């Protein structure tokens, strides 16, 4: 077995090639640090290949897909950006007449990694905001477990939730919770659109692990948001959001 160990900016890479035949053992080893700079190993063909693909990628990332009428930040208990994302998630089945619509959407605050600036929205901006490959799922959850999700919201001070939900939090305790203006029925099954990351119980969402069932949509959040914004733009609409008191901390 031949092995080559290379350091790049403190990151270790190990390359190995195996062949059939006698087995070998390492009897000695040495290393040399080779700084990787522009003049280290010039290769004009490789540079041209990288530059060509870089230009293609930059052109795609700079593509404008919409316009935001306002700057949107992400924060607790609610924010323009978390409200926008959660409300968009509620429309995941809007073009499917046969699909059963979600009852509510749940999104974590730090599933966002950058604010949305006012003005033109580029593909690259959406990649910056939603850098993770999280998938959208539909979680069928009993009402008493949904209340535990809301109690977790109370403990962490709020997070993303769709506009048809109203939560009142007092002293980090859930004081009141309503979905579509109705108190949560502990025995009813609610359809919650959320991220696969949250459905696994991460970010204090342990109650999702008691789900009756979890169904994949086949969509990543980022790709869905790209499509959602593109569709709104095609309808002649700007991207907007609002603070509407969906989560109140007293």
Contiguous runs where pLDDT drops below 50 for at least 5 residues:
4-19
Class by helix and strand content?
Answer: alpha+beta
Euclidean distance between termini CA atoms: 66 Å
Rounded average pLDDT:
88
The radius of gyration computed from the alpha-carbon positions, rounded to a whole number of angstroms, is 24 Å
Number of DSSP helices?
A: 6
What is the percent of helical residues? 25-40%
Q: What string gives the helices and strands in order?
A: EEHEHEEHEHEEEEEHEHE
Shape: globular
Largest sheet: 5 strands, mixed
Task: Report the strand count.
Answer: 13
* Proportion of strand residues: 25-35%
Q: What order do the strands of the largest sheet run in, or round the barrel if closed?
A: 7-4-11-6-12
What is this structure's SSE topology?
Elements: E1 2-8, E2 11-17, H1 44-61, E3 64-68, H2 80-89, E4 104-107, E5 119-122, H3 123-129, E6 135-142, H4 143-156, E7 160-161, E8 165-170, E9 173-179, E10 182-183, E11 189-195, H5 196-199, E12 213-220, H6 221-234, E13 247-249
Parallel strand pairs: 4-11, 8-13
Antiparallel strand pairs: 1-2, 3-5, 4-7, 6-11, 6-12, 8-9, 9-10
């Amino acid at each position: 077995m031949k092995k080559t160990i290379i350091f790049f900016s403190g990151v270790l890479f190990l390359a190995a090639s195996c062949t059939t035949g006698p087995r070998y053992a390492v009897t000695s080893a040495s290393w040399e640090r080779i700084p990787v700079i522009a003049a280290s190993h010039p290769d004009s063909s490789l540079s041209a290949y990288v530059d060509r693909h870089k230009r293609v990628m930059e052109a795609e990332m700079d593509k404008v897909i919409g316009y935001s009428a306002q700057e949107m930040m992400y924060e607790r208990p609610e924010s323009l950006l978390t409200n926008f994302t959660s409300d968009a998630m509620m429309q995941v089945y809007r073009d499917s007449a046969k699909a059963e619509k979600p009852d509510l959407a749940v999104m974590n605050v730090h599933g966002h990694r950058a604010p949305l600036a006012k003005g033109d929205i580029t593909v690259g901006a959406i990649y910056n905001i939603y850098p993770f490959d999280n998938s959208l799922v539909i979680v069928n959850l009993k009402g008493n477990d949904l209340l535990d999700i809301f109690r977790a919201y109370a403990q962490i001070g709020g997070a993303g939730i769709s506009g048809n939900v109203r939560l009142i939090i007092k002293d980090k305790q859930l004081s009141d919770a309503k979905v579509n203006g109705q108190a949560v029925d502990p025995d009813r099954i609610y359809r919650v659109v959320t991220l696969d990351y949250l459905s696994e119980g991460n970010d204090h969402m342990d109650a999702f692990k008691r789900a009756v069932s979890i169904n994949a949509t086949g969509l990543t959040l980022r790709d869905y948001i790209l499509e959602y914004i593109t569709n709104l733009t095609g309808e002649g609409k700007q991207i907007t959001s609002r603070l509407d008191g969906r989560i109140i901390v007293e």
